[in-house]
Amino acid sequence: MLTAASLAMLWGFAATSTAVAEDPVPTVVVAKDFMFSPMTLTVKAGSKVTWTNMDDEPHTVVSDTALFRSGAMDTNESFSFKFDQPGTYHFTCSIHPRMIGTIVVR
Predict the structure, then answer these.
(1) d(C-alpha 48, C-alpha 65), whole Å
(2) Which pLDDT score, from 0 to 100, does residue 24 have?
(3) Domain segments of the chain: what residues?
(4) Could you tell me if 82 and 103 are in contact, meaning their C-beta atoms sit under 8 angstroms apart?
(5) Could you report the per-residue pLDDT of 67-105, keeping only the tens digit for each?
(6) 101 touches 41 (CB < 8 A)
(7) Residue 53, exposed/middle/buried by CB under 10 A (0-12, 13-18, 19+)?
(8) What is the 3-state secondary structure (H, E, C) of the chain?
(9) Do residues 95 and 59 lie in contact, with contact meaning Cβ atoms separated by under 8 Å?
């Protein structure tokens, strides 16, 4: 038989579990073969996007509006940015300007 304290603990756990499940899921963009993949990514406002360098050469992630800018990322290094506002955000690698991409935030 459950006591009042046990029920309160279960209720608190259920409330906490629900809050965690509603958090935005991080999304990954990979730099590989001198390209960003995917080149265009659509996410919900509040999402965190993580860029990971899977090339043997360093890459950066630079917003065309100076909203975000990573340092040089070596192989297997990452950079993350949380997109709070809806909009369309273009980015490039400042070392290899032909590497371009877009984040669409809804």
Answers:
(1) 18
(2) 59
(3) 24-105
(4) no
(5) 999 999 999 999 999 999 999 999 999 999 999 999 999
(6) yes
(7) buried
(8) CCCHHHHHHHHHHHHHHHHHHCCCCCEEEEEECCEEECCEEEECCCEEEEEEECCCCCECCEECCCCCECCCECCCCEEEEEECCCEEEEEECCCCCCCEEEEEEC
(9) yes
Q: For tokens 């965190």, what's the residue?
A: 48
Q: Residue 28's pLDDT is what? A: 96
Amino acid at 23: D
2-46 pLDDT, tens per residue? 454 443 444 443 443 333 344 556 799 999 999 999 999 999 999
Block residue for tokens 């043997």: 56
Please give the model's pTM, rounded to 2 decimal places: 0.77
Q: Which CATH architecture has domain 24-105?
A: Sandwich (2.60)
Contact 53, 23 (CB under 8 A): no
